[in-house]
Amino acid sequence: MAENNSNQTFTPISKTYDIIIFGASGFTGKYVVREALKFLNTPNSPLKSLALAGRSPSRLSVALKWASGPNPPPKIPLLTADTSDPSSLIRLAAQAKIILNCVGPFRLYGEPVVSACVESGCDYLDICGEPEFMERMEASYHEKAVEKGSLVISACGFDSVPAEIGLLFHSRHWAGPSAPNRVEAYLSLDSDKKLVGNFGTYESAVLGVANSNKLVELRRSRPKRARPAIPGPAPPKGSIIEHQKQLDLWGLKLPSADSIVVRRTLATLTENPHGLPGVNESVENVKKREAFWSSVKPAHFGVKLGKKSLFGLFPVIMLGIFLGLLSQFSLGRWLLLKFPSFFSLGTFRKEGPSEDEVARKKKPDTEVITRVMGPEIGYLTTPIILVQCALVVLNDHDNLPKGGVFTPGIVFGPTDLEKRLQENGISFDFISKKALST
Ligand SMILES: NC(=O)c1ccc[n+]([C@@H]2O[C@H](COP(=O)([O-])OP(=O)(O)OC[C@H]3O[C@@H](n4cnc5c(N)ncnc54)[C@H](OP(=O)(O)O)[C@@H]3O)[C@@H](O)[C@H]2O)c1
């Protein structure tokens, strides 16, 4: 991927809304609205104007009422748009600086929204966790997005900002000459209540597994990306389930979107060792950006689900088996989508979690443990991250690339996103560093 052209002068277009939340009536969308309202016209916030968009004004109105409760709903425009009507999307994109897209599954509904944003030079952020969609958008729209000055960044939610910013945070705790060979992320979803996900996320996962061959085909059709220089040999594949003594967790290897997104960030960094130049960057920011990226040490990255007991992994193993077997056939997919609660052993429901359920919530010689921690992943952490990413784009526009399809890590790594997340309930902590006996 070529470096962004930072020599062109960027003329900001006057837009009616700083942010339009598309899919605001959805389960996740309404939580994103609630998070965005916290920053609308508050002191020092760059968010001065907000609109909601979706297929049904009445459902948008219900979502706004829920999101602003117990206060009366603020006067916010409710705009109608449907992904099957490209002109409605062009109208949205023409009015917004940024569209926050919460309409999923992205494999089904995402492309027309990306296309409209790129065409209109509008910035686009979403909460997608579907690798094939993200890579297809990069293959199809990157060049045009650079040309039109549209920043397209998927995975600005739980997928994959904690992994991306977490890896960069972790990297800073390796003082030279030591450098990591691999970073294993353990995803621990412990809560005093059973964790439940909404149908939209489950449907996206079923369709993702069913179409996994499309990602393989897409990659075969594209030029190979650069590989980062990582010290030492590639780590062994290891077993699918293992006990992690230091953390006292049972880990189950996950085919996670996070590892794919991190790999793309590291590939872009290898191709652009100083990161991506901003559209109108100050000399001071250039120095800051270059110093930031020179401190990052690429590593092999993997994700495991971490549970206190082996038995805790059982529902995920069963869901993985059901998804793997049934998603390959149309009858199997129909059964999976018809009975989400049965096949996920209660982890996903058609009607989503209740508000109460959401509210709770070479041989290596050195080991560094860091921790990223936040509230419930889908409907609390994801909206916090998406809204903070959007505020960075509004606030820090001159220091970000003018346009292109990118991962969150390569765009937001050198910005104040990590600090903003810390201030909004997502913590990044250094836990320990020790020498390992070899
Ligand atoms: N990465 C993460 O961490 C994370 C977390 C949470 C969710 N997600 C993803 O977010 C997506 C949404 O999940 P959800 O649970 O919120 O789903 P949902 O409740 O089903 O919401 C879907 C939204 O999309 C809208 N929509 C559907 N078809 C549309 C169309 N043709 N045109 C315009 N709008 C349309 C719906 O509008 P109507 O009201 O008109 O039906 C609704 O607002 C999923 O892909 C999920 O995987 C990701």
Automatic annotation (TrEMBL):
SUPFAM superfamilies named in the record: NAD(P)-binding Rossmann-fold domains
Keyword Transmembrane included in the entry's annotation: yes
Organism phylogeny: Eukaryota, Viridiplantae, Streptophyta, Embryophyta, Tracheophyta
Highest taxon in the source lineage: Eukaryota
TM stretches of this protein: 310-331
Keywords annotated in UniProt: Membrane, Transmembrane, Transmembrane helix
Record-linked Gene3D superfamilies: NAD(P)-binding Rossmann-like Domain (3.40.50.720)
Pfam families: Sacchrp_dh_NADP (PF03435)
Family label: Belongs to the saccharopine dehydrogenase family.
Segments forming domain Saccharopine dehydrogenase NADP binding: 19-153
Organism: Rehmannia glutinosa
Name of the protein described by the UniProt record: Saccharopine dehydrogenase NADP binding domain-containing protein
